[in-house]
């Protein structure tokens, strides 16, 4: 359904772009159904236990590689990690192309090959190259109930510094996007609604970010999340050897 008042796309920080309503209803339904399949055991959705003994309030299932603090592994409780599907990689490339579409360049710092030679963008050619060469091989699928939160953190366990793609489904989440130096200010808070896209790369690839609040009952009907809650998919390039 078209919003009564369209929400414009915005640059949250250099290299970080928010595209509201990027996924249509059909694509949202497909992703929700896929998430339901991925959530099933074995290697299904679970709460992650942190080294200090705490348990994360979100529930997570991983594709391609399993994230555990603070590394990626190939098995979960003796079971292989679920495969990362090719159609999801195609969606990730579409997302990067949309975020870094021709027009005002979202960042203008020099290209930087990064630790694994992944493009960080920079020039207009850099942003287009990032879309063409983007090859995500890992996804974290997080489910937030009304009480779940995600503390400010950096996505730094990947060897590649290619952009991160974030897709939102269901209830609105208040997304806090900060700086690369600390969890303190400056930051910007943005409400991510169902179907919204965020891509962050370049100078913002290691920005601290998190989810401070879920808005219960704010999600759309008809996408398969009638029980409420928020699903978030983040796609990344691990930069790891696939033969490991």
UniProtKB/TrEMBL annotation:
One matching Pfam family: 2OG-FeII_Oxy_2
Keywords attached to this entry: Dioxygenase, Iron, Metal-binding, Oxidoreductase
One function term, GO molecular function aspect: dioxygenase activity
Obligatory cofactor(s): Fe(2+)
InterPro entries named among the record's database cross-references: Alkb, AlkB-like, AlkB-like_sf, Oxoglu/Fe-dep_dioxygenase_dom
Domain Fe2OG dioxygenase, first and last residues per copy: 135-239
Biased composition (Gly residues): 115-124
Region (Disordered): 102-131
Domain of life: Bacteria
PANTHER family (alphabetical): ALKYLATED DNA REPAIR PROTEIN ALKB-RELATED (PTHR16557), NUCLEIC ACID DIOXYGENASE ALKBH1 (PTHR16557:SF2)
Name of the featured protein: Alpha-ketoglutarate-dependent dioxygenase AlkB family protein
Organism: Actinomadura yumaensis
């Amino acid at each position: 359904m078209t919003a009564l008042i369209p929400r414009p796309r915005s640059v949250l920080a250099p290299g970080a772009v928010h595209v509201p309503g990027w996924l249509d209803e059909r694509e949202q339904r497909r992703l929700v159904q896929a998430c339901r399949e991925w959530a099933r055991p074995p290697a299904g959705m679970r709460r992650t236990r942190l080294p200090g003994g705490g348990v994360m309030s979100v529930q997570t299932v991983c594709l391609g590689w399993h994230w555990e603090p603070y590394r990626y592994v190939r098995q979960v409780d003796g079971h292989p990690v679920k495969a990362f599907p090719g159609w999801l990689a195609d969606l990730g490339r579409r997302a990067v192309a949309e975020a870094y579409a021709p027009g005002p360049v979202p960042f203008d710092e020099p290209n930087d090959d990064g630790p694994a030679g992944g493009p960080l963008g920079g020039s207009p050619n850099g942003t287009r190259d990032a879309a063409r060469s983007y090859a995500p091989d890992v996804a974290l699928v997080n489910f937030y109930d009304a009480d779940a939160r995600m503390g400010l953190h950096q996505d730094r366990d990947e060897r590649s510094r290619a952009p991160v793609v974030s897709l939102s489904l269901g209830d609105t989440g208040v997304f806090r996007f900060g700086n690369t130096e600390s969890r303190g200010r400056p930051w910007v808070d943005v409400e991510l609604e169902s179907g919204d896209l965020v891509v962050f790369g370049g100078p913002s690839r290691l920005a601290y970010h998190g989810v401070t609040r879920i808005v219960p009952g704010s999600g759309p009907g008809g996408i398969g999340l009638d029980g409420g809650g928020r699903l978030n998919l983040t796609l990344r390039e691990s930069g790891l050897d696939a033969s490991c």
